[in-house]
Design a protein that fits this description.
Layout (H helix, E strand, L loop, with lengths): L1 E4 L4 H16 L4 E5 L2 H4 L20 H10 L5 H11 L2 E6 H6 L13 E3 L1 H8 L5 E3 L1
Parallel strand pairs: 1-2, 1-5, 2-3, 3-4
Length: 134
């Protein structure tokens, strides 16, 4: 499965993480290509602190965060980490955006596998049976 992660809001990060976990449980390999705002949530300083929801649902963010805490739901990071441990999940960061923001591999959380260009990612994604844009 191939996921282009364009947004870094909690609701989108959770969707990408849960879909990755489900795909791995079904024996699929997963490649996530984080670009623009998606890669921002993968920066070391943002991994545990980003609680922003997309504009479409920001008025519900407070109650949703409370509900997630009440239900003891794991964070998107925990879900994605477990998926990576359970199967072949790779997280790639877009080199164009990383360069634009003067970011290097060491600026990202260890959950990130590499920084690569779109050509490298497309070469991997072209063989995917499922492609998602989040």
């Amino acid at each position: 499965m191939s996921i282009v992660l364009f947004s870094g809001t909690v609701d989108k990060m959770m969707a990408a993480s849960v879909l990755s976990s489900g795909a791995v449980s079904m024996g699929l390999d997963v490649d996530i290509f984080a670009t623009f705002y998606g890669l921002n949530s993968l920066r070391k300083e943002n991994v545990g602190s980003n609680m922003r929801f997309s504009k479409d649902f920001e008025e519900m963010s407070g109650p949703l965060v409370q509900l997630m805490q009440q239900k003891h739901m794991p964070s998107w990071y925990e879900v994605l980490s477990k998926a990576k441990k359970a199967g072949n999940v790779k997280v790639h960061v877009c080199s164009l955006v990383a360069d634009m923001m003067d970011l290097k591999k060491e600026n990202f959380d260890p959950i990130v596998d590499d920084i690569c260009g779109v050509g490298t990612y497309v070469d991997v994604a072209k063989d995917s049976s499922i492609t998602l844009f989040i």
